Amino acid sequence: xxxxxxxxxxxxxxxxxxxxxxxxxxxxxxxxxxxxxxxxxxxxxxxxxxxxxxxxxxxxxxxxxxxxxxxxxxxxxxxxxxxxxxxxxxxx
Length: 92
Fold this sequence. Notes:
Elements: H1 5-41, H2 44-63, H3 69-89
């Protein structure tokens, strides 16, 4: 347990940030899952729309340092490759 006033405050701040970060990370996982489900379903338009939204959310999380910038970039790159592959594989 913290013994100083500043340590007590840091504990409170850490708890608030932990809860907020968990919420953001969980929602990111949901956005990524939606893109993957759209790809699995073969829906090009939905996959593209979901990818755009997911990409934005990943960038926002990275800018707030909830996730590392390289993690966001890597995830976006992998999703983008799968969306592009879907667009090429199925005829227009």
